[in-house]
Amino acid sequence: MKCSAPYIDCTGASRRGIALVITLLMLSVVTITAVAFLAVSRRERVAVSTSGEQLDARYIANVGLNHAQGRLASRISAFTNRAAYGGYMVSTNYGNPYFQQGVNYAYLQTRNFRHLTNVSYYANSNFTKFNLENAGDRESYARLLGNLYYDPRPPVFVSTNRNPRLPPDFRFYLDLNRNGQFETNGFIWERDRQGRIIGNSQRFFWGDPEWIGVLENPDVPHSGTNRFLGRFAYVVVPTSRTLDVNYIGNDAKRLDVGAGLPRDTNVLLSSGFLRNQGVGSWEVNLAGFFGTLNTNVWLYSINDYRYETNIAVRSQGLTFSDAERVRRFRQGPTAPQSADDFYLIDSGASDLVQVNNTFQGDFIDGYSDGPLVTTVAQIRGRVPDNDRPNLAWAGSDLTNHFTGLNDWFNPTLGFGARITGQYTNQSVARTSPLSTYDRYTFYRLISQLGTDSADGRFESGTHPVYSDVYRGVDSVNPNGFYRRAKLNLNYAQDNVESSSIDSARVTSFQPWKPLQWFTNAASRLLLSEFTNSLPFFPPGQARSVPGLPIHGSVRVRDANNLEYLTNYVYDSQVHRLLQVAANIYDATTNQLLLPLQGPVNQRVAFPTVLRPLVYEDARTPGVLRLHSFEQIGAVPNLNNPLEFLLARDWVSPDLVTNGAPHSGGSPRQRLAPSLPEEDVTSAKRGFNVFGLPWVVGAKKGLPNFNQALWQTVFQPTRRLIITRPTRNSKIGNSELPFAGANSGGFRTEYQYILSFTNLVGIEAWNSYLTNFTRPVRIFATNVLEFTLRDETLPQNPQVLVERRELLSLDLTTNNWAAKQYLSGGFSRNTNSPQYLAYPPQIPANVQTVRNGIYPNGLAIGLSFIYDPIRRLALPLTQTNEARVAISQSNRRYLNPVVSAYATNQLFFTIIDNLSGRLLDVVTLRSVMVRTNLISTLSFDSQGAEQEFFQEQLTGPPDAQMPAFWSTNLVQNNRTRGMDNQMLASLGVFRVPPSLWRSPAGAGGLVEDPQFSIDGLRYFLYGTLPTTSLDPSYADRIRRQYGSNLVVQVGFNPSPKVFMSDRRMANDPLVHYTRDDLGPGYFFLTEAGYTEIPHEFFGLVSGADFGGIQLATNFVGFDIGRS
Q1: Sign of dihedral through CA atoms 215, 221, 222, 224?
Q2: Containing H/E element for 1035?
């Protein structure tokens, strides 16, 4: 519209135009904002989805890790051998070779889905796949899907681009060797190059890992409502059973120094490999490994392996070519460092003279470049040798490392066809995809050649131990540490834990001292598993980092600031790390090999023995921590080794942390100070801790500790005493003589007699096939502490008996035969140190019984009358005391709760009598606790109570011990167990002779059971047997029972309770912690109630666990029955 006339008003149109423009602009802004919002939302949605999928993948990976660990643990448990974990393995699906394909009833029936072991992924044993176009195969396959439960194979089908007309591919395996075929696992027929079966039997093969599905509800089988959430597959490669490809092979002849890999993978390379004394891992022959890995590939012709020992001639053939390719792949285009350059950083300065002196004067061909050594004389003649530390050294660091399985398929290596069974060389097919031997080459390779050794070059990083967590400040070096990743096995480093480059210096090239090596190696090993090791001061910090806690309780707070109490223990994992550190040193030194002495013609390499020192850090009172170690040499006085071994007090860890009174003050007063840790004088090393093992380096050929047994046998006896008003009083035939339960005024009282016996025995063993002809002395001391408490009132427990005994063993032998066990009897040590002996806490006049030496052991016993009302222990002579009336009246009954606490603390050592050196040292603590001992007697072998309430028409039933200790109340303080005891004494129940016995000191007469039954019936009911009664027999009953007002029933149940702790070595060289010894603690009652660890089942004879002979030539007693 055009507004040209003066009388036309265009203001409205202008405004509308402006409004339209603004509207369009706003719409544009809104559109841009919406688009931006959508883009951001899409990006965030994708990010959230990706994060969720990554989290799910992490969880599924953890499931796979736990699955692999469970398989390893199950193998160890099945074979009771920690080394029997099976080695290399892959994930596999469960399959039943006896799969029932044709079942008469319809597969949709519910019961079919409960055949969880009826699973097979093939239609028959020839691995024929199911044909889903066939109705019968579809039915079997549907049945299979309903039975997926154990390690199931999830049905995952993928459409591929090979041929769209083919059905989807079932991807149930992980094709690690990339050959496009499934290498099955298990026993299969071995086939040749043409696919024909070889031999008459199947062989076991590990092939492709198989995917294992994770069900939404893993406790029920797979179904339409219980689908798979994910799947996992894994390969387990034991590092200890593989060679590390990063540290083998060399170019010792230095013929191709610094040469890189050629681009053409078909070019054959020559090798400068040489092996001489085998002093380094670089002398392992990788070419020889390839030759034995697959002879079709690497030994196809005679020229494939041509090893030359001449220093100037190269080794030839495909095997050496591939070994050289691997070495150059690791080396890159850079020449290896010389030994002088390698130690340039380590020594702090280039000192070629010092390096020359070291390499040329050590009798070792450190450069592995010859001349070849074939005799001992040639080794001794190698001073000075021809090692030139200024030349490239095969033992130096290389720039590149193999990091995983995929590196073998790197195109520059050219290994892909060789390890997948598809290798062709010069138009000759050396391998065949039909050959089992060729197809499984890659899996044989990765099961023997790994990449898991840690990098030995310098490292820097952070660790909690290097930060002052108590002040919240960092050290001078913000990275925490800078050091060699590995300790130098040959030369001691000057300042191994410094935060500067000086930490790796080996300026003087001095060999390690035992304690120096051990503390440094142990510190690193402990830090690899824990946040603490041995205490030290990081540079630039004002306070020390505390040592590893090993005992005590401390309050800590979690992420939510909630406080809780945690306990520290010296775990077997800690000791294993310390043992590794000591074993490495003892395996690399022969300094302890003594010359021949006197008439003895046997030399022995003695182990390094290290005694742990503990301390208490002021920041965590009540917690024992590792401080350091003291190396123990020879015993100074061979005539009295106990003077040395017992010179420092032996205490329990609880005694230290609790600050309990002690001779010479509390042991806590003699703990090493928390600051400074390195200031530990001899006066601060004043005690040993029971149960804290010493570290003994592993040496072959030495006798060792084999087993120890501690057992506490508890035997309660309940007597029933009946009193009548007059000699002529009688009760009805259906009545029992309990107060208020009869018309004759009879009353009954019960009385407890408690006995216990503690047995101790040890055994040593020469586990080798040769005699040990040096004179040795076996010494052991065992501190036995036993407490019996009345805990009927938990808020006010009373000690009935508290006893401590110091037992000693001292045995000498001059010729220890091969495979011979030695065990000597313990005896009481009346000359014990003051801190180990205190008067036994026993009530006056309580009799000690069964006190003497058993065959190869010692038994110490005690018996007394137990008063459950006053909660006292009384002498056996006070037979009229501690009787409790059984009443029908309103009388409160408290079942007596008696608990036993037995602690044994053992120190054992074997000493070489010629040198005074310690051959073995063991210290163990055994703690056995059983609460409410009497109540356990009412349980059978399944843990259920047994009772007798009725008589049987066919005759009296056989009685069993649990019925006499039932605590179910009949009325007031009268229990079913007391009723059963009375009925058994009257002959209502038939009591086996093994149960009918009068215990020593019970006060009753040892009588014929039938006479006792007849006499009690006459005493209560005035009746005598009516069948064939001998007049003299009747007169005896009248004389003994007719005139008495008080009589004790004939049957007094007296079962036994066995608390046993047996610690036996499975490996002669591994026997220093409780966890390394088995079977451990177990509990038995004569009634048949058992609590036995799972690993002990295989040693038990008989279903009732009765009559278990713990050992021969050991403690002479039968644990099952008396």
Answers
A1: negative
A2: helix 1031-1037
Distance, in Å, from the CA atom of 676 to the CA atom of 544, rounded to the nearest integer, reads 8
Phi, psi of 11 (to 5 degrees): -65, -45
Contact 411, 178 (CB under 8 A): no
Structural domain spans, the chain: 242-336+401-453, 337-393, 574-696, 702-1122
State yes or no: cis peptide before 875, omega within 30 of 0. no
Residues sharing a CB contact under 8 Å with residue 748, sequence separation 6 or more, in sequence order: 720, 721, 722, 723, 737, 738, 739, 885, 886, 978, 982
For residue 664, give every residue at least 6 positions away whose Cβ sits within 8 Å of its Cβ, in sequence order, or none: 649, 670, 835
**pLDDT tens for each residue of 285-328:** 999 999 999 999 899 888 899 999 999 999 999 999 999 999 99
Which token pair is 396?
Answer: 């130096």
Helix (H) or strand (E) holding 31: helix 11-79
Q: Is-contact 1081 1061, C-beta < 8 A?
A: yes
Rounded to the nearest 5°, which phi and psi values hold at 758?
-110, 130
Helix (H, G, I), strand (E, B) or coil at 828: strand
Residues 372 and 374: their CA atoms lie apart, in Å, by: 6
Q: Over the stretch 470-489, which tens digit does the pLDDT of each residue have?
A: 344 444 444 455 566 678 88
Q: Quick one: DSSP state of residue 337?
A: P
Query: Strand, coil or helix: what is 982?
Result: helix
pLDDT per residue as tens digits for the range 493-528: 766 555 455 555 676 777 888 988 998 899 889 888
Cα gap 420→415, rounded to integer Å: 9
Summarize pLDDT for 967-1016 with one digit per residue, the tens.
888 878 888 899 999 999 998 888 887 778 644 333 334 457 888 899 99
Helix, strand, coil share (%) of the chain residues, nearest 5: 25, 25, 50
Of residues 736 and 509, more confidence is placed in 736
Per the CB < 8 A criterion, the answer to whether 579 and 508 are in contact is no
Burial 1011-1032 (b: 16+ CB within 10 A, else e): bbbbbbbbbbbeeeeeeeeeee
In the block, tokens 């030349």 appear at 391
Residue 1119 pLDDT grade (very low, low, confident, very high; cuts 50, 70, 90): very low
| Cα 738 from chain centroid (whole Å) | 55
Single out the residue of 916, 918, 919, 833 nearest to residue 637, CA to CA. 916
- Written as one string, the DSSP assignment of 110-179 is GGGGG-TT---SSSSTT-PPP-TTSHHHHHHHHHHHHT--SS-----EE--SS-TTSPPEE--B--TT-S
Contacts for 989-997 with beta carbons within 8 Å, 24 or more apart?
989/948, 989/956, 989/957, 989/958, 989/959, 989/963, 990/955, 990/956, 990/957, 990/958, 990/959, 991/959, 991/1051, 992/958, 992/959, 994/1121, 995/959, 995/961, 995/1051, 995/1053, 996/1050, 996/1051, 997/1054
**AA letter at 864:** F
804-846: pLDDT as tens digits: 888 888 889 999 999 998 887 777 766 655 545 444 444 434 4
On the CB side of 376, how many CA atoms lie within 13 Å of its CA?
A: 0
Q: Judge whether 1003 and 1049 are in contact, CB under 8 Å.
A: no
Strands 898-912 and 776-790: antiparallel
* Short-list 475, 609, 478, 463, CA closest to 917: 609
State phi, psi for 321 to the nearest 5 degrees: -65, -45
How many angstroms separate the CA atoms of 137 and 123, rounded?
7
Q: Do 608 and 697 contact (CB within 8 A), yes or no?
A: yes
pLDDT at 666: 43
Mean pLDDT of 215-242: 90
Distance from C-alpha of 550 to C-alpha of 692, rounded to nearest angstrom: 9
Whether the per-residue pLDDT at 113 is higher than 70: the answer is: no
**Cβ–Cβ under 8 Å, residues 494 and 520:** no
Q: What is the pLDDT of residues 380-401, one digit of tens each?
A: 777 778 888 888 988 887 888 8
